[in-house]
């Protein structure tokens, strides 16, 4: 099951050539991940108060096409727990049904002091090949 998050491209998202600035794709996929966390009912502020935070530890990204001012995109995301502390997201940004950006993002669960800690029970799975359903 894939989570879909819509993105509209505004003038401020583009460079002088009218093409979306490359770093903005990272912002779009971050927004999609934040939306997933919210839809799962995880309160990141409450988790922080309990001593758990998420931090991105790795991003692998491929720029396949380009988006421009006025485009409407969709971020498609699947995710799964990997081990005890890692949460892995496979994310595609699509324009008109075609992938223009693809990323694999690994986030780790840690204490506010930066020490790795177990993922919340809601995210733990039996193995890396299983994907937790997205609401």
Give an overview of the whole structure.
With 135 residues, the chain is α+β, with helices and mostly antiparallel strands. The chain is built from two helices and five strands, in the order E-H-H-E-E-E-E. A hairpin with a 3-residue loop joins strand 3 and strand 4. The longest helix is centred in the first third of the chain and has 16 residues.
Briefly characterize the structure.
By secondary structure, the protein is α+β, with helices and mostly antiparallel strands. It has helices at residues 24-39, 44-49; strands at 3-8, 53-63, 72-82, 86-95, 98-110.
Assembly state: single chain
Structural class: alpha+beta
User: Which series of helices and strands comes N to C?
Assistant: EHHEEEE
- The number of helices is 2
The fraction of residues in strands falls at 35-45%
Q: Terminal Cα separation, in Å?
A: 9 Å
Strand order of the biggest β-sheet: 1-3-4-5-2
Runs with pLDDT <50, length 5+?
126-135
Alpha carbon gyration radius: 16 Å
Helix content: 10-25%
SS elements, strand count: 5
* Cα shape: elongated
Mean pLDDT across the residues is 89
Main β-sheet: number of strands, strand sense, barrel status?
A: 5 strands, antiparallel
């Amino acid at each position: 099951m894939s989570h879909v998050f819509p993105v509209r491209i505004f003038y401020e998202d583009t460079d002088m050539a009218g093409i979306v600035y490359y770093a903005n794709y990272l912002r779009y996929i971050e927004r999609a991940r934040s939306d997933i966390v919210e839809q799962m009912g995880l309160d990141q502020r409450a988790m922080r108060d309990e001593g758990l935070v998420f931090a991105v530890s790795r991003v692998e990204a491929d720029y396949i096409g380009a988006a421009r001012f006025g485009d409407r995109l969709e971020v498609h995301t699947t995710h799964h727990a990997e081990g005890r502390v890692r949460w892995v997201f496979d994310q595609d940004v699509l324009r008109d049904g075609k992938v223009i950006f693809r990323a694999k993002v690994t986030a780790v669960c840690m204490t506010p002091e930066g020490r790795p800690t177990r993922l919340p029970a809601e995210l733990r799975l039996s193995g890396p090949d299983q994907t937790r359903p997205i609401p």
